């Protein structure tokens, strides 16, 4: 799986200011919905929230990977946000989260879903990448970083 | 006078060498106790030192005190919470287990060596118990962190099984001396009296001592001494009244270690030193006492006893004793292998010598060999085996130093010090982004020997010294932020607990839907906590894992006996 298959520069936002977990999830849902006509912002947001209710997707070290499965979606979709200042996310280490990669998969997909999630978690455990992402930049700059 | 000065000098040299050698030994993973024992032998009659020490009565007195101090410290360091999963299996191993070990070892060796079966039994009883000093020091070395069920069982077992071995040994010596062969019913009564009185006086003594410590105002250095004197008083009194002093002092320690106690960290720190001193003195002394040349002469019986004990008796005892607790086979195998023998068998082997039993020297030689074999074979392989059996859990980081704020207004508060490493999560983060748990406050950051002006933009760096005042409840969370160290991949957070975290209260149907898992209909409505508890057929501990279709669920956090958080590993 390549990151370029699930992410596009239009679903990336850098140097964002938000104040809560709810608003950053809304923003992620917006990014995906704007890019995907057959999905609404509300159903995406609800799907991400449903997962958060089972336990926070904050992995620690300021990174979160919110994810969900959606009936209407036809392909695996990712979105990425870098925040100027972290928000409380109830992460495992209780520290604020400032890097978020959201992933939505079609309901039909099974194994692939798990592999992509595992891959993302591994990718964000690389402290060098994370440090560079934190420095922010344009959508395309962030996209290039993530694509590697 | 000259002799006394020589004695002081030799004693100090041995102590000094032991301590210096311990630093080298821990680098090579050699069991420390083995090093102390070897040093004693080197100094002894067959070694370079040529010290001819064979005063068994003195050796017995000193080693008894040392053992009591070690058990006391072991009790203080045992968390009462670990009793939840460890007490019942440990009790079973410490009573029935010792009996089975003694009988099997005894009968086998008497058959092989053509001894009378009573003599065989005595030998079995002498080597029947595992050693608290060995278990505590080996299980806590090199940042080894075992799954709680295994660690707790082994530790508690080693703390409470000596009385059983002592009891059996003394009874058998009395019976052999008196020429009796049939054990009478009075045995059961004697056993109940010893253990009952030991337990009663241990707990009562603990409460009394605690009350005294918390009421007296003393110079700081006096508290640990008061505790030591109190513990040894409990030990002595219990023995005088015919109870088991070892059991009593272990329980007193356990009680003190698990109650709010004045000057607690101070007491623990000094007793840590006391326990080390006791271990060194004990093992060097026992090494001195042994005559390697004589042991070699007893090599054949000694090797057979060691082999039978390690490969037959202990595994059999473990299998029988743990059968009711349905432990996973990996854990049983590890417990069967970790039947570490240490000082106790050597001390017990002095009993027949003091009693003037026929062939007493042989018991001593054989017991000594068994201990060396056990420490070498089992002690050395314990850490690799725990890795192989996947029984290690991610290590729990700790501050460099903890000092309690021992004033009435600051009850439960401590000043803790961290030394930041490159991999510590907070390194590189600006202070303003740091969320410390409630009830904790960062009071200073030292860099290059001077305090930094802390404004929000300042970033923590490698090698910084960080000082935090916190309540003891928040310590675990702080440790994860400030003390984490590099761990091998299979023991880092993601590698061990899996990629994501789920609440113990989430239902299986929700999780299955989220990750596209196929699960049987009857499981749908269960919560993760219920599922893990049910599938383990045992009280769950951190690190227990269960497969669910394509993923693995791992117990991540326990809260008050319940599964609070569960890791989900997306790889198989």
UniProtKB/TrEMBL annotation, chain A:
Can you name one GO molecular function term for this protein?
protein-N(PI)-phosphohistidine-sugar phosphotransferase activity
Q: Which Pfam families match?
A: PTS_EIIA_2
According to the entry, every stretch annotated as the PTS EIIA type-2 domain falls at 5-148
Q: Which InterPro entries match?
A: PTrfase/Anion_transptr, PTS_EIIA_type-2_dom, PTS_Nitro_regul, PTS_SugarTrans_NitroReg
**Coiled-coil ranges per the record?**
none
Tell me which Gene Ontology terms the entry assigns under biological process: phosphoenolpyruvate-dependent sugar phosphotransferase system
Gene3D superfamilies in UniProt: Mannitol-specific EII, Chain A
Q: Under what name is this protein listed?
A: PTS system nitrogen regulatory IIA component
- Organism of origin: Methylohalomonas lacus
UniProtKB/TrEMBL annotation, chain B:
- Tell me how this protein sits in the membrane: Multi-pass membrane protein
List GO BP terms, alphabetically.
potassium ion transport; proton transmembrane transport
The alphabetized UniProt keywords are: Antiport, Cell inner membrane, Cell membrane, Ion transport, Membrane, Potassium, Potassium transport, Transmembrane, Transmembrane helix, Transport
Protein location:
Cell membrane
Coiled-coil annotated spans: none
User: Which parts of the sequence belong to the RCK C-terminal domain?
Assistant: 402-484
Q: Please list every transmembrane segment annotated in the UniProt record, as residue ranges.
A: 6-25, 57-78, 90-114, 120-139, 160-179, 185-210, 217-237, 273-296, 302-322, 334-357, 363-383
Check the record and name the Gene3D superfamilies matching this protein: 1.20.1530.20, 3.30.465.10, Regulator of K+ conductance, C-terminal domain
- One CC-aspect GO term: plasma membrane
Please give the InterPro entries that the UniProt record associates with this protein. Answer: Cation/H_exchanger_TM (IPR006153), FAD-bd_PCMH-like_sf (IPR036318), FAD-bd_PCMH_sub2 (IPR016169), Na+/solute_symporter_sf (IPR038770), RCK_C (IPR006037), RCK_C_sf (IPR036721), Transptr-assoc_dom (IPR005170)
Q: Does the record's keyword annotation contain Ribonucleoprotein?
A: no
Full protein name: Cell volume regulation protein A
Q: Which domain of life is it from?
A: Bacteria
MF terms per GO, please? antiporter activity; flavin adenine dinucleotide binding; monoatomic cation transmembrane transporter activity
């Amino acid at each position: 799986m390549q990151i370029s298959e699930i992410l596009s520069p239009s679903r990336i936002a850098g140097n964002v200011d938000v104040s809560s977990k709810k608003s950053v999830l809304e923003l992620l849902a917006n990014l995906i919905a704007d890019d995907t006509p057959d999905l609404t912002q509300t159903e995406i947001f609800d799907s991400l929230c449903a997962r958060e209710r089972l336990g926070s997707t904050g992995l620690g070290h300021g990174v979160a990977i919110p994810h969900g499965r959606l009936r209407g979606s036809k392909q695996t979709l990712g979105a990425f946000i870098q925040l100027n200042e972290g928000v409380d996310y109830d992460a495992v280490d209780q520290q604020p989260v400032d890097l978020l990669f959201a992933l939505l998969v079609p309901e039909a997909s099974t194994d692939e879903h798990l592999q992509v999630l595992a891959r993302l978690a591994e990718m964000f455990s690389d402290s060098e990448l994370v440090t560079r992402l934190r420095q922010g930049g344009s959508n395309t700059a962030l996209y290039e970083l993530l694509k590697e | 006078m000259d002799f006394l000065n020589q004695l002081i000098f030799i004693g100090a040299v041995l102590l000094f060498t032991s301590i210096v050698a311990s630093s080298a030994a821990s680098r090579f993973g050699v069991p420390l106790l083995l090093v102390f024992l070897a040093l004693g032998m080197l100094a002894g009659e067959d070694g370079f030192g040529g010290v001819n020490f064979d005063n068994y009565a003195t050796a017995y007195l000193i080693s008894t005190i040392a053992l009591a101090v070690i058990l006391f410290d072991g009790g203080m360091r045992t968390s009462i919470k670990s009793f939840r999963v460890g007490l019942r299996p440990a009790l079973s191993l410490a009573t029935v287990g010792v009996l089975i070990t003694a009988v099997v070892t005894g009968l086998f060796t008497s058959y092989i060596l053509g001894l009378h079966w009573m003599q065989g039994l005595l030998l079995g009883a002498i080597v029947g118990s595992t050693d608290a000093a060995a278990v505590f020091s080996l299980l806590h070395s090199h940042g080894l962190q075992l799954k709680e069920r295994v660690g707790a069982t082994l530790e508690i077992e080693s703390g409470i099984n000596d009385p059983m071995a002592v009891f059996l040994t003394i009874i058998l010596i009395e019976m052999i001396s008196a020429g009796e062969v049939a054990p009478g019913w009075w045995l059961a009564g004697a056993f109940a009296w010893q253990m009952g009185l030991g337990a009663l006086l241990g707990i009562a003594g603990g409460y009394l001592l605690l009350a005294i410590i918390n009421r007296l105002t003393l110079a700081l250095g006096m508290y640990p001494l008061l505790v030591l004197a109190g513990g040894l008083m409990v030990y002595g009194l219990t023995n005088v009244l015919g109870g088991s002093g070892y059991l009593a002092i272990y329980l007193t320690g356990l009680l003190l270690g698990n109650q709010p106690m004045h000057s607690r960290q101070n007491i623990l720190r000094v007793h840590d030193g006391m326990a080390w001193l006791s271990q060194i003195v004990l093992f060097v002394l026992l090494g001195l006492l042994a005559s390697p040349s004589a042991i070699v002469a007893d090599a054949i019986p000694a090797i057979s006893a060691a082999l039978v004990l390690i490969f037959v008796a202990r595994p059999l005892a473990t299998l029988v004793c743990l059968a009711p607790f349905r432990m996973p086979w990996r854990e049983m195998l590890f417990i069967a292998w970790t039947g570490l023998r240490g000082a106790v068998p050597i001390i017990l082997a002095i009993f027949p010598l003091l009693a003037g039993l026929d062939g007493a020297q042989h018991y001593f030689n054989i017991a000594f060999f068994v201990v060396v074999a056990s420490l070498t074979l089992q002690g050395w392989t314990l850490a690799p085996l725990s890795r192989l059996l996947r029984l290690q859990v991610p290590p729990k980081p700790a501050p460099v130093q903890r000092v309690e704020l021992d004033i009435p207004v600051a009850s439960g508060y401590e000043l803790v010090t961290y030394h930041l490493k490159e991999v510590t999560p907070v390194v590189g983060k600006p202070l303003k982004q740091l969320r410390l748990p409630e009830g904790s406050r960062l009071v200073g950051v030292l860099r290059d020997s001077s305090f930094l002006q802390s404004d929000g933009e300042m970033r923590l760096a490698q090698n910084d010294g960080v000082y935090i005042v916190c309540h003891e409840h928040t310590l675990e969370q702080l440790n994860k932020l400030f003390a984490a160290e590099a761990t091998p991949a299979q023991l880092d957070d993601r590698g061990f607990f899996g990629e994501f975290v789920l609440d113990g209260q989430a239902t299986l149907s929700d999780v299955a839907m989220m990750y596209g898992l196929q699960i049987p209909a009857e499981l749908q409505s269960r919560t993760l906590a219920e599922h893990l508890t049910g599938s383990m057929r045992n009280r769950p501990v951190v690190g227990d894992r269960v497969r669910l279709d394509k993923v693995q669920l791992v117990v991540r956090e326990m809260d008050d006996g319940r599964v609070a958080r569960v890791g989900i590993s997306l790889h198989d």
